[in-house]
Specification:
mainly alpha
Amino acid sequence: MPKVSEEYYEKKRCEIIDAAYRVCVRKPISSVEMKDIIAETGYSHGAIYRYYKDLDEVLHDLVIRVNSENRVDEKLDQILKKAGTKNWKAGVRKTCEMLADHLTEMGTDLLKLSIYSDVLAMSDPERVSRITEKLGLDEQSPLISVAAAMGAYFTRVIREQKLRPMKSVEEILQFMIATYHGIINGYVLSECFRGETVKGKYDPKTMFSCLAESVILMMDRA
């Protein structure tokens, strides 16, 4: 295929992914249909199928884009290297501070997309498996990389600093992931629905600071 044609092809696919993003932010992914994306692009029914064979193929590329553009691997690596195992408490606090900043930088649209993705995973796990299969390392959820890095770090800290953790590393990671999702839900709710019962209740920095102190307590019962 000539170079110009390749560029044109990729440009059109990018436009379709842009449209899919806008649609998936407005409504739950589980209720999105190909006709929604076709309407959003303004393309004809036949035109869009020249670039994607079905909706799940579109969602697959949307997942790749979102995950690839929101990685925190380098930031986390720098934080943990600077802290080392001796200053592990600072490492935990800085990590949670970074995650709070990253969450607010992502904005509510992306976070809503994350929530909708979780709902789809719960309602149709087989479909999500098909959509996300064969993702490269840099295309998978950034949270997977964070969990892996923190798991290795906690294991090394416990060994080298001779800590006596209250919970296993796996349990601490599960707690962190569950809390992370809870903070996202609360933050998006408080930003999108400004009722008196939720307004100002979910400040990410405050919530992640609480997470950091909880993890520190679980890491060393001494």
